[in-house]
Design a protein that fits this description.
Low-confidence stretches: 3-18, 113-121, 192-198, 232-250
Strand content: 35-45%
Order of helices and strands: HEEEEEEEEEEEEEEEHH
Number of strands: 15
Mean pLDDT: 75
Structural class: alpha+beta
Length: 252
C-alpha cells in the first residue's frame, strides 16, 4: 500500500513541475488549460470586463500559448485560433498552419477589417520550419502593439529558435472596438461569427494559453516557452512513478 502511495506521489510531483506556463512577476488577464482538438472540434474563450482587451492604437497585449501533437494537413491551411469582435467587425486576426508528412511546418497568419473596413483582408503571411517533429512543443506569441501586429515562435526548449515571423500590419487598430472572443482550432474566412464546430479546424493539443496586457520582451518569451516545456527531471519523476505502479501490478 505504501508503495502505491509513493508511486502516485512521485507521479504527481513530476506532473506539477511541468504544468502550465508562466512569467515571473507578470499575471495573465485570461488563461486556458490543456485542451485536445481532434480536427473537428473547437471551443471559445470569452474576453470581457473587468479586463477589456482593446483594439485601439493606444493599447498593447500579447497572446502566448504552446501547442503540440500537430496533425499532418492537406494542402490547405487549417486553423489554430481566430480572434473576434462579435459585433460589426467580427473576424480580426487568425493563426493557422500546414504540416507535411515529411515535417515541413508552415505557420500562417492574417487578418480581416484592416483599416476599419470589415470587407477588406490582408494576405496570409507565412514562415516554414523544416524537419519539424509533431511531438515537439511549439510556443507562439501574437503581439498587438498599438496597432502593430507581429508573430513570434519558439521550438521546444531551444531558445536559439525564437523567431519573429514579421510584422503583419501597421494599421490593425480598430477605433474603439474590443476583442471579445478567441476561438481555438478555427480559421473562418466568411466574416460571420464562428461557432463550434464550423470553419476549418486544426488537429493539435493546446498545452497552455495566456493573454497578457503587455508586450513581452524576448527574455519573457523565452521564460514562458521554457516553463511550458516539461523539465527532464519532472518528466523522469512522472515516468518513475508510473514505472513503479506497473511493476507493482505485474507482481500482483
Amino acid at each position: 500500500m505504501k508503495t502505491k502511495y509513493l508511486a502516485l506521489l512521485i507521479a504527481a510531483i513530476g506532473g506539477s513541475l511541468s504544468f502550465g506556463a508562466s512569467i515571473d512577476g507578470l499575471d495573465a488577464a485570461y488563461s486556458k488549460a490543456t485542451t485536445v482538438y481532434n480536427g473537428t472540434s473547437g471551443d471559445t474563450l470569452s474576453v470581457s470586463s473587468p479586463t477589456t482587451i482593446s483594439l485601439n492604437n493606444a493599447y498593447s497585449w500579447t497572446m502566448a500559448f504552446t501547442i503540440s501533437g500537430l496533425g499532418a494537413t492537406s494542402n490547405s491551411d487549417v486553423g489554430l485560433l481566430f480572434t473576434y469582435n462579435t459585433g460589426s467587425y467580427k473576424n480580426l486576426e487568425g493563426l493557422g498552419f500546414q504540416l507535411t508528412e515529411s515535417g515541413n511546418l508552415t505557420l500562417c497568419a492574417g487578418g480581416f477589417a484592416y483599416g476599419g473596413n470589415p470587407a477588406a483582408s490582408s494576405p496570409w503571411k507565412t514562415q516554414t520550419f523544416s524537419g519539424y517533429s509533431a511531438s515537439t512543443p511549439l510556443t507562439l506569441f501574437y503581439t498587438f502593439n498599438r496597432g502593430n501586429v507581429s508573430i513570434s515562435a519558439m521550438l521546444g526548449d531551444d531558445t536559439s529558435t525564437l523567431t519573429t515571423l514579421g510584422d503583419l500590419s501597421s494599421s490593425a487598430a480598430f477605433s474603439n472596438q474590443n476583442m471579445t472572443q478567441i476561438n481555438f482550432s478555427a480559421k473562418d474566412t466568411t466574416g460571420n461569427t464562428w461557432s463550434v464546430p464550423n470553419g476549418i479546424t486544426g488537429e493539435y493539443t493546446l498545452n497552455n494559453f495566456d493573454l497578457y496586457t503587455a508586450v513581452l520582451t524576448e527574455e519573457q518569451m523565452k521564460a514562458y516557452a521554457l516553463s511550458a516545456v516539461p523539465e527532464p527531471a519532472a518528466a523522469s519523476l512522472g515516468l518513475l512513478g508510473l514505472g513503479i505502479l506497473l511493476m507493482r501490478r505485474r507482481r500482483a
